Amino acid sequence: MKRTYVIILILLVPFTNISAQNLEHLLDSLSAVYSFSYEEMEVDSNFASKYLLQFEQAVDPDNPEGQTFKQRVFLSHEDFDTPVVFITEGYTAWHAEKPDFTSELAGLLNSNQICVEHRYFGTSVPDSLDWDQLTVAHAAADHHRIVQVLKNIYNGKWISTGISKGGQTTIYFRYFYPEDVDISVPYVAPLNFSIEEQRVYRFLEQVGSIECRDRILRFQTELIKNKADFLPAFEELANKKKLTYSMGIEKAFELTVLEYSFAFWQWGSFTCDQIPVDLSDKNKVVKHLDEVSGLKWVSNEGIEELQPFFYQAMREMGFYGYDITPFKKWISYTENPTFEFTLPKGIQVAYEARLNEQVDCFVRHQAENMIFIYGEYDPWSAPAVELTYQTNSIKVVKPGGSHRTRIKDLTEKQQEIVMDTLLKWLKP
Hints:
The chain has about 425 residues and is α/β, with parallel strands linked by helices.
């Protein structure tokens, strides 16, 4: 099916043969005006050439004369006149360093590809972190500037896309700058309305079969009820992984167990019959807990690695919490835990609900040419976007799909819908 679509798309655009030297000439001219550097990178046969661009961005876009940082942009070039897939990463873009990195859409459409590392992640970080400047609007402004510069190179249509938090970033970018791209394809991107998203609780009470949900609950209950028996194995494995917990080992264990149900459905890496029933081997049980929930998740090291994400979630993007109702007899928490403890030391924020309410209104009533892709069993599909019949946007949900759901994982009929829609919107 992929070959068919690529052939169809090639017929839609004029054939040109742009050399790497011509592209470099353009990059030379643009970099002198727009404050970015570039260097050629190794690339495989998926693209003609590849470059790392370092854009000098204002930490505060409203104060361009103030502090700046260098933002990594990976440009994989195929042809001037083919479409551009513009990837709004939500985190680092380390994977884009690889010569063979090709996003699903770029592969399907035989297009150019531009991948942008999110501000405050990877190497795209100011010398000193001003957390006030890490906003959705400022990240969108980063993307806007990059698109406006690189549109001087490419003549084809632009498709913005991202996965998970990157998918949320795609939605926000389209909200703030609706004319910058022609099409947006966010994958598995929630639109939360709280830092304790209630729809996730309801979802976990209904997802899958009752037998599987009961097996998950029994597993969690036994671990929390008998935590004294499992804590030594938990601490031993954490020490091996060089993980530490500021909230203490007991609460860290409880949070990791509470995460189990969300993570089990999110990733779909295990089947229900793989959930341990025999809990006598404590090390084996904790190993399974790590494989599903991840001992690093609430560790100091894990939080530090993802701290910009947690900050954005607590301030603007929203998140989920843990319902402790079934475990109140044994758990040390007295209220449902949420993730304020992940904020940088000394930083406090109040969740700003208005942004996502406005984005929700935009998606429902104004946003055109957007394709939203979700997995049915992914808890992040609980706060998925909701569409109306007022726009041409579509939402596709893979039956039984997880957070790993991509176009290639959809049913054959769903793939046809997605690709036919993309090709229609890509016509000149």
